[in-house]
Amino acid sequence: SMAPSTTPVTPTTGPVTVALATDNPASGSFIAPASGVQFAKFTFSGSGTVTSLKLMRKGVSSSSTVNNVYLYDGATRLTDGASIGSDNTVTFNAVGGLFTVAGSKTITVVADTLVADYSLAFALTSYTAGGVANTVNVSGNEMYGASATLATAAMSASTGSGSTDAGLDINVWQSTASVSTRDVILKSLALRQ
Length: 193
Hints:
0% helix, mainly beta, 10-stranded mixed sheet
């Protein structure tokens, strides 16, 4: 396995540059299966809209180690889950823009892990910002998979009034969480209409 990059490479052209974020996750362990594991943080600087971003899977692992890779801006998920292709890459595209940089913006690579492979990292290999394609090699640190018996949390089928009428105190969504093995902490809940 290749050692993670310690000196981020920044492009010399284009309206937006990128470097490893100062708060990039340190090398560590993840328990599989798990949701929402942070693998890398990249800080984009300059001014422009990023419409394409490509990541490369690195480390001693397989493409089936994860089933979803996401991009986050803070606590806001920017993309749907993407799969790692047979070429070990994950590409995100959005004609209207994945995100806009005005000064600086830190984007986090988050993945749902399925199995506890030996090591896994993600490197940013290219992105398009303001119509300019940039090739880079900025790598997050390797994370090491481990197995454990985890707590589980399952949500029951949701219920609600389904009402579209205006009014007060309308129950639009309700569900019951069932937790087993040990206590869990609910960190976030995202609802989409």
